[in-house]
Design a protein that fits this description.
The chain is mostly beta strands. The protein is built from one helix and 24 strands.
Length: 305
């Protein structure tokens, strides 16, 4: 399946027919014909798929840089897989893609069906607005995208991309400033036997650290209100225990049948603004489906205000 040329040419032929491919006019809160018009507010606040309010299930491939994505990256899945995005406002728009190998996604708003979106098109559009909600009450909402693994009969694949979201709100939308901190930072310390992959093309800053044996630990000191740990999910992924400020958070399974770099492995709740410590403990164990017990530490995203 040929998607785009190497120079990331954006072949966008946005018409009403393309935009509404797979639209369901009867959907509650779903896309309608008016969304194809130029009535979307230009001051809507944009959030990337890497935002700390996004939650992804297993089965996604993160940090796709092959195309001219918003923010430089996007996440994709062939299904079954799901993700959710928490936002405050009155409307939301999801940006993804349309292409001959695209599949069908089910959309839910606050747990209620908003219809299915068929992203198939015989023309390529990267960063396409694939779903726009109807008017909602001002407040907190959750958009959920379920990749079904299905496609219409003309499609050559089932891939669904999540590139970005835009939110309309009656009140100013507060976006925390997020800082990417690599595993090489001075605020990191490692105990036990760790390996460094300095030639990892898909890793953040092209390198990560990994360990598979028990008693290996990675300690990250940070100042902020939230933290996200990024690393690999793969067939050889193992189990890791996470502690935040000395308190046990839980055991996290890095196994996945779908290999993905820069995956969000753990995201904290909102914390008091100040110094905190995140400890990752490699257990040396794995679930029965895994081919190994490897734990990856690639980078951290920290909300600093």
């Amino acid at each position: 399946m040929e998607l785009l040329t190497g120079n990331k040419t954006r072949a966008c032929l946005l018409s009403l027919a393309v935009f509404c491919c797979g639209c369901h006019p009867s959907s509650e809160g779903g896309v309608n014909a008016a969304d194809a018009a130029d009535d979307w507010p230009k001051d809507a606040t944009r959030f990337e798929e890497t935002d700390l309010e996004t939650v992804f299930s297993d089965g996604w491939v993160h940090a796709n840089t092959a195309f001219d994505w918003s923010g430089g990256t996007a996440a994709s899945a062939k299904g079954p897989a799901s993700m959710s995005f928490n936002f405050t406002g009155t409307r939301i728009r999801w940006y993804g893609w349309r292409e001959s190998g695209a599949g069908i996604a089910r959309v839910l708003l606050d747990g209620k069906s908003a219809g299915k979106v068929d992203q198939y098109s015989n023309t390529i559009e990267v960063g396409a607005p694939v779903f726009t909600s109807k008017e909602l009450e001002q407040g907190q909402h959750t958009l959920t995208i379920e990749v079904t693994g299905d496609a219409n009969r003309d499609s050559s694949g089932t891939t669904v991309f999540v590139d970005a979201f835009e939110v309309v709100s009656l009140d100013p939308v507060a976006k925390p400033r997020v800082r990417r901190i690599e595993e090489t930072a001075g605020s990191m310390s490692f105990n036990g036997e760790w390996n460094i992959d300095s030639g990892c093309k898909l890793c953040s800053a092209r390198r990560d650290a990994w360990a598979g044996g028990p008693d290996a630990m990675a300690n990250f000191n940070f100042t902020g209100t939230r933290v996200r740990w990024l690393g690999w999910r793969k067939q050889a992924g193992g189990l890791a225990n996470v502690y935040l400020d000395g308190a046990f958070v839980g055991e996290f399974d890095l196994y996945s049948a779908t290999t993905s770099a820069q995956s969000p492995l753990f995201t904290s709740e909102v914390l008091a603004n100040g110094p905190h410590t995140l400890l990752i403990e490699v257990t040396g164990a794995n679930n029965p489906s895994a081919a190994g017990s490897l734990v990856s530490v690639d980078a951290f995203d920290v909300a600093v205000d």
